[in-house]
Amino acid sequence: MNDVLSDTVDAFLDAANPEPPELLQEMTAYGRERDFPIVGPDVGQFFRVAATLAGAERVFEFGSGFGYSAAWFRTALPADGEIVLTDYEESNLATAREFLGRQDGATARFEAGDAMETFRRYDGPFDVVLLDHDKPQYVDAFEAARGEVADGGVVVADNVMAGPVELENVTSALEGGEPVDDQTAAIAEYVEHVRDDPGFETAVVPLGEGVSISVKR
Ligand SMILES: C[S@@+](CC[C@H](N)C(=O)[O-])C[C@H]1O[C@@H](n2cnc3c(N)ncnc32)[C@H](O)[C@@H]1O
Questions:
Q1: CA-CA distance, 200 to 11, in Å (whole number)?
Q2: What is the pLDDT of residues 138-182, one digit of tens each?
Q3: pLDDT digits over 22-63, tens only?
Q4: Atom 2, ligand 1: residue with shortest CA distance
């Protein structure tokens, strides 16, 4: 995992945060053993708090992998809530189905295929929308989501500081430099896009690989 935090801060968060539920500990180990790009426990705990603050009942994920972030969100949802998982890879969703099958809680829907196509088939409102799929699709996904997010709901986006991008390169692009590649250009564009949107209030949180959170006014 390409964390932006120092080892010292990382150790602090491990000590300070609540111990993750057992299933999430198992899923963290599963992801790390396979080098799968999960958001990790610090971001997972942050998602749990964000969903709780939003009073979330419905969550939609663009890019769910094997269900790690979804399992975190689900810990904050009521039993009659709903979370929609999307992924290109059937095999990822099959693993997600196994893990989430061992967790009580909100209804989980597993949707193979392009996340945007799936999103268009669902009606809002959603209280939380996660963007964690192809970075060049973030702005379009945000625009698709904006009308389907409840007032007080949030759009969270992963990898705004690291992962497929380098922190210094994103900073340079935000300062007006020529982006070094498409991923960097896409992330810088997304950060500026949500920052300048009067309909949302946005902060970037340097946990994991950097998360942006935009609250709908
Ligand atoms: C970073 S991983 C998601 C990790 C997950 N959110 C977590 O933290 O547990 C990104 C996933 O998005 C999927 N993906 C990428 N582009 C997609 C798209 N357009 N539609 C659906 N899935 C997509 C990939 O197959 C991959 O499994």
A1: 33
A2: 999 999 999 999 999 999 999 999 999 999 999 999 999 999 999
A3: 999 999 999 999 999 999 999 999 999 999 999 999 999 999
A4: 65
- Ligand 1 within 6 A of CB of 209: no
Within-domain flag for 18: yes
Compute the distance from residue 189 Cα to the ligand 1 centre, in Å.
20
pTM of the model: 0.97
CATH number at residue 39: 3.40.50.150
Which atom of ligand 1 lies nearest, measured to the CA of 137? Answer: 19
The bridge status of strand 82-87 relative to strand 58-62 is parallel
Distances from the Cα of 166 to the Cαs of 139, 163, 173, in angstroms?
A: 19, 7, 11
State CA 61 to chain mean position distance.
7
Domain assignment of residue 214, yes or no: no
Query: For the chain, what is the domain count?
Result: 1
Which tokens hold the place of 214? 């935009």
Distance CA 207, CA 78 (A): 26
**CA–CA separation, 27 and 31 (whole Å):** 6
Instruction: Name residue 60's amino acid.
Output: F
